[in-house]
Amino acid sequence: MTCKDVSDRLDDYLDGALSRDAREELEAHLGGCAACSREAEALRGIVDGAAALAREIPPRRDLWPGIEARLGRRGVFVSPSVLAVAAAVIVALTATLTLVVSRPAEAPGPLLLPDAEPTRVALRAPGRGVLEAEAEFERAAAELLVELESRREQLSPDTVLAVEQNLRDIDIALREIREALHEDPANQGLVGLLGSAHRKKIRMLEMVVRHSPTLS
Amino acid sequence: MEDLPGNVTPIRAGRDAGRQEEQALVSRAREGDVAAFEQLYRRHVGRVHSLCLRLARDPQRAEELTQDVFVRAWQKLHTFRGESAFSSWLHPLTVNVAYSAGRSRQRWASRIFATDDLSSFEDSVPGFDPAAGMDLERALGTLPPGAREVFVLHDVEGYRHEEIASMIGVATGTSKAQLHRARRLLRKALTQ
N or C: which terminus of chain B has fewer CB atoms within 10 Å of its end residue's CB? Predict the structure, then answer.
């Protein structure tokens, strides 16, 4: 057995994975080769050292309050988290918008007056379903934004900047799609785009909330 | 069967009693008893946290992951059949959460940022003072992610390559190659 052979088989040797013949052959080589013997000894030290490392390292602080807050109230079965609600909203509203897209276009309804948000363009939608679906999407996004705002201090400046930029881009896209729908309310493709933009916004917020530290 | 030495029987009896007590806690937690789940948390948090810390390298991230693990465990409790120790079920779940989180952060970051520059999301490698010497725990933090993950799972936690391959979604040969690399890098780091 050469030194190269030994080097290739040292890991299996240390892990007790060699056959008896291979083990004996390797050990015979180690007995006559100081360099390989030193290598084996050094690696054995690492393997033994790893096995001796502490298996339990308690966290610096009690993490239970943060965990409990995400489970639900004490003694009560877990209630859906903000993230789970957002996911359910996406599924339900995707179905709603899909239904609207697949339904034959109805005569345009009355132009709805803008609500409190001045930048919002009223939709002359194929039906009220789209407007209601949008309202639900925006409610879900607002809940996530509240959650995210509560963790703002824990976010890095880069993350805050990226989130704000992404939100701006998506909101611009939403405004443009709404404006296009105002001109062409029967365009089902635009309705689909509207849903996609809302979903992208919620998923982006969901990801940031999921990966951001809490105040627990 | 020959009787075992007398002091083994009380140990085994104690272990069995502890296991039964834990099974009772799991049953109650599965019914929605948060207090019972808290007791499970207190029993296992040290072990879960140590694994998260060695995989994540960052103490704050490790604490976040530890919380994620227990929240996930709560959500998945109905899948634990109780045929093995609770830790045997909780530990692979820990690996899954920690490993997935590490990969997700990179994918998420690449979507949020227009460029491929993920440097602001990279955890800084723990530095060390050569004058103070390097111990194995600190040397672990200098390993590349793949090598560190396999070394922690194999040499620290005692998983076999086949189990590691299954947990982190790599070939067994890859797991062996990463371990080989990890041990050599550690040897080099500890002898500098």
Answer: N
On chain A, the residues whose CB falls within 8 A of the CB of B183 are 11, 43, 46-47
CB distance from A20 to chain B under 8 Å?
no
> Cα separation of A32 and A113, whole Å?
92
Q: What are phi and psi of A127, to 5 degrees?
A: -170, 170
Tell me how crowded residue B29 is: count the other CB atoms within 10 A of its CB.
22
3 state DSSP class of B163: helix
Buried b (16+ CB within 10 A) or exposed e, A158-181: ebeebbeebeeebeebbeebbebb
**CB-CB neighbors (< 8 A) of B101 in chain A:** 211
Mutate to test the interface with A, among B112, B115, B190 (most CBs of A within 10 A): B112
Residue of B52, B53, B94, B54 lying closest to B73 (CA atoms) = B94
* Residue A43 at interface with chain B, using a CB cutoff of 8 Å: yes
Cβ of B67 within 8 Å of Cβ of A162? The answer is no
Taking the CA of residue A66 and the nearest CA in chain B, the distance in Å comes to 7
Residue A33, class by beta-carbon neighbours within 10 Å (0-12 exposed, 13-18 middle, 19+ buried)? middle
Q: Determine the Cα–Cα distance for residues A37 and B84; give it in Å rounded to an integer.
A: 41
Digit-coded pLDDT (tens) for A143-195: 788 777 777 777 777 777 778 778 877 887 888 888 788 777 777 778 888 88
Q: Is ipTM strictly over 0.85?
A: no
Residue B42 token pair: 């207190």
pTM greater than 0.80 (yes/no): no
Q: How do residues B42-59 score in pLDDT, each as one tens digit?
A: 999 999 999 999 998 889
Q: Give me the DSSP letters along B44-104.
A: HHHHHHHHHHHHH--HHHHHHHHHHHHHHHHHHGGG--SSS-HHHHHHHHHHHHHHHHHHH
